[in-house]
Structures are given as structure tokens and as C-alpha cells.
Design brief:
binds pyridoxal-5'-phosphate; 2 domains; alpha/beta; 4-stranded antiparallel beta sheet; 410 residues; 14% strand
């Protein structure tokens, strides 16, 4: 008899993106001539930066020589990439992070899920609502939750609403939690966290011995110079936070695959509630990666390294600026069409209040049928996302402008 991981059976049947795909497919069959504009899934559209392509081509040629061939690399990533990351993303911003604390991987989606491997099953876990679904579903799969409730929330998880009523701020919970997932700039709301707000979370985590899992996948889209790009810009974060970063959104690596996770050496946990002894999370993550992961390809790591060259930095800046101009067009046009819009100023997502409080999925169907535009219903990201709708700025200028004139014509 084969037994399956029964936790998977607790997952909600209609996962967001398959349900969107199902509705779009049905619409396409009923309306064969319609030209759809997809502003739904958060995937980039613009070509890879030249600097990254050149570096990867050179790396392929190296691999074709006896001297330049590379087999398995270090599981944690090549030291030249870890050093470039530590220096450019952290030390130059005044964050005390060393190359040894950077773990290169093939994605932050997997890292933010795999991190649960080194964490116990008795932790009280908090997520924001709405939220990047990966954090919740990974906890369900691991058995860290009970059953799903009618609201779509899971028993055993602590939800922190981020809505217009609280200015999209993740407020400190009134009872202790052990693990908190935070993502800023936020997917899906496009909201940001100030250094002061992150400071409140760091103080909370230090006081309660909790761990913050900070997802900074969208830091490159920050336009406001006063906003923190990393949680390590806050004093004390080395003792309470792991940070996830990715080359997916800034450098267009969604299909190329490279990311990294920062695990400071100060981070500690305990093996049991009674245990007096501290266990190093850095040691455990290092061990986990060495056992279950064989590294990112040499070629791709060379491509990621090129992001930090001066040409690479300029090209990445141009890419993020391009998407942020899209976001600004979306914000402006939708506001002119009378919609309430949030986000999109320091993040590539615009979060829209549905008109007349109509249901998120009804608004999805309305835009699909009337304007042939695909967006993402807010309720797919959590119960508190009901009544909201996400449009992504990842698209060509033409498509964005077309989509906006279609909405204005409604
Ligand atoms: C896109 C995204 C990532 C990046 O995931 P990769 O696996 O590195 O492509 C991480 N977190 C959030 C919230 C995202 O939206």
C-alpha cells in the first residue's frame, strides 16, 4: 500500500492560476477572434539584459574547453557570485552581510518553501492576508495547518490583514508568533514597508525570539530613496531574519533561474521548547542545501554575476524603470477611469479596489468579457483580498496602453 502525504489533500481545490487558466481557455473557445491582453501572472516580458547574455555565452564557450569545464559546483554557489552579492546588495547599502551568509539557489519560490525543512512543526506561524500563496500552501503541505475554512483561510495559521483600512501595513499581532512571513515591496498589493515599520517587526521578533522570513523579490522596483531594500538595513535584523532575493524580476531571470537566500550566522533556534541549547540556522540550511541541492549551473551564475557589472547595473535599471513606467500609466489611467488604485509606485503591481464592491471573480469575468483583459482576482491571494484586483506592469508598452484604452472605453 502506498501512503501519500495526506496534507496535500487539505489544499484548496481551485488554486488561483489554474482557475484563471480555465476561465481564459473557456473564453477563448467561445470567442475565437478575441485578442487577449494578459496582465495576470507576475512574469516578466522584456528580453534578458545584454550583459547577462554575453556572460552566459562566454561561460558556455568556457565549458567547451578542457581547462574551462565545470562539473558540480559548490552547493551554496560560487564564491565570486556570493561575494558580488554581499558587496553590492548589502555592504554598499551599509548592511553587515558576508559572502558566507549568501546561499545561491535556482529560485526564491523554492527557497521560501524549502526553508520549512529546517524549522520545527510546533511553530506558530503568521502570514499577511492577502499573501503570496506559496508561503501558505507550503505550510499546508508540511502539515503545519489544520483544514481549510469556508473563508479560504487555514486553521492553525495566524493571518494579518493588509487592506486599505490599515493602510496596507502589516500590523504587529497582539499575541506571540514564532515565524512571520513578510514580503515588501508586496506581491500582490504593491504596498511597501518603511524602515520604521520593519523596525517594529524586528523589535517584536527579538523580544519574542521569533524568526522573520523576509521576501525582497521586488526591492529593485523601489523608487523612493527613503525605503529600505533589505531587512538588514534595520539594526538587530541579523539576529531574527532570513531574507529571500531573486534575479527573476529585476534581471528577467524568471526562465533562466537564479536567486539567493541570506542566513546570518547569528540566527538560532531550539530543538525542543525545553532545550537550553541553541542550534544555528546557518548550519542547518547549509547542511540542507548540501544534501538536497546540487547548485545552480555555472553558466547561469556567470549570468547573474554580470548583473553587478556596470553595464549590467545600467541595463537592470532600464528594465525596472520600463516596468515602473508601465505601472505609472496603469495607475494614472485607472484613476482617471474612476477606479481606486493602490501600489504601483515602488512595485510592479497595481492593486485596484473593485468598483461598487463587486466580487473579485465577478470583476475578473467582467474585464475578461468586456475588455478581453486578464488580471488576477484579489480573493485568490486570501480572504482579505476580496473586493480587490491585481494588474501587473510586466508587459509591453503597447499592451499596457491598449489595455488602458479598453478599460476607459467601458
Ligand atoms: C516572483 C516572486 C518571487 C521570485 O521567485 P523565483 O522562484 O525566484 O522566480 C519570490 N517571491 C515573490 C513574492 C514573487 O512574486
Amino acid at each position: 500500500m502506498v501512503l501519500v502525504n495526506a496534507n496535500y489533500l487539505k489544499l484548496q481545490a481551485g488554486y488561483l492560476f489554474p482557475e484563471i487558466a480555465r476561465r481564459v481557455k473557456a473564453f477563448g473557445i467561445a470567442n475565437p477572434g478575441a485578442s487577449l491582453i494578459r496582465l495576470g501572472i507576475g512574469d516578466v516580458t522584456e528580453p534578458l539584459p545584454q550583459a547577462c547574455r554575453s556572460a552566459m555565452k562566454a561561460a558556455i564557450d568556457e565549458m567547451g574547453t578542457l581547462e574551462g569545464f565545470h562539473g558540480y559546483g559548490p552547493e551554496q554557489g560560487y564564491s565570486w557570485l556570493r561575494e558580488a552579492i554581499a558587496k553590492n546588495d548589502y555592504q554598499l547599502r551599509g548592511c553587515d552581510i558576508s559572502a558566507e551568509e549568501i546561499f545561491v539557489s535556482d529560485g526564491s519560490k523554492c527557497d521560501s518553501s524549502n526553508i520549512l525543512d529546517i524549522l520545527g512543526d510546533q511553530n506558530r506561524i503568521a502570514v499577511t492576508d492577502p499573501v503570496y500563496p506559496v508561503y501558505v500552501d507550503s505550510n499546508v503541505m508540511k502539515g503545519n495547518t489544520g483544514q481549510v475554512l469556508d473563508s479560504g483561510r487555514y486553521q492553525g495559521l495566524f493571518y494579518i490583514p493588509i487592506t486599505v483600512e490599515n493602510n496596507f501595513e502589516a500590523r504587529i499581532p497582539d499575541h506571540p508568533v514564532d515565524i512571520i512571513y513578510l514580503c515588501f515591496p508586496n506581491n500582490p498589493t504593491g504596498a511597501v514597508a518603511s524602515k520604521k515599520q520593519l523596525g517594529l517587526w524586528v523589535d517584536y521578533a527579538l523580544k519574542n525570539n521569533s524568526l522573520i522570513l523576509f521576501d525582497a523579490a521586488y526591492e529593485a522596483f523601489i523608487q523612493d530613496n527613503n525605503l529600505p531594500h533589505s531587512i538588514y538595513e534595520v539594526d538587530g535584523a541579523r539576529e531574527c531574519a532570513i531574507e529571500f532575493r531573486s534575479f527573476s524580476k529585476n534581471a528577467g531571470f524568471t526562465g533562466t533561474r537564479c536567486a539567493f537566500t541570506v542566513v546570518p550566522k547569528e540566527l538560532k533556534g531550539k530543538s525542543t521548547l525545553e532545550s537550553k541549547e541553541d542550534v544555528s540556522l546557518w548550519e542547518l540550511w547549509s547542511r540542507r542545501q548540501s544534501t538536497k541541492f546540487n547548485g545552480v549551473s555555472y553558466i547561469v551564475q556567470r549570468g547573474a554575476e554580470a548583473v553587478y557589472s556596470s553595464a549590467g547595473q545600467a541595463q537592470v535599471k532600464a528594465l525596472t524603470s520600463f516596468y515602473m513606467e508601465n505601472a505609472s500609466i496603469i495607475r494614472k489611467e485607472l484613476a482617471m477611469a474612476g477606479l481606486k488604485v493602490y501600489g504601483g509606485e515602488n512595485a510592479p503591481y497595481v492593486w485596484i479596489k473593485t468598483p461598487d464592491d463587486i466580487d473579485s471573480w465577478d470583476f475578473f469575468d467582467y474585464l475578461l468579457n468586456q475588455a478581453n483583459i486578464v488580471g488576477t482576482p484579489g480573493s485568490g491571494f486570501g480572504a482579505s483580498g476580496e473586493g480587490y484586483f491585481r494588474l501587473s506592469a510586466f508587459n509591453s508598452r503597447n499592451n499596457v496602453e491598449d489595455a488602458m484604452s479598453r478599460i476607459k472605453a467601458l
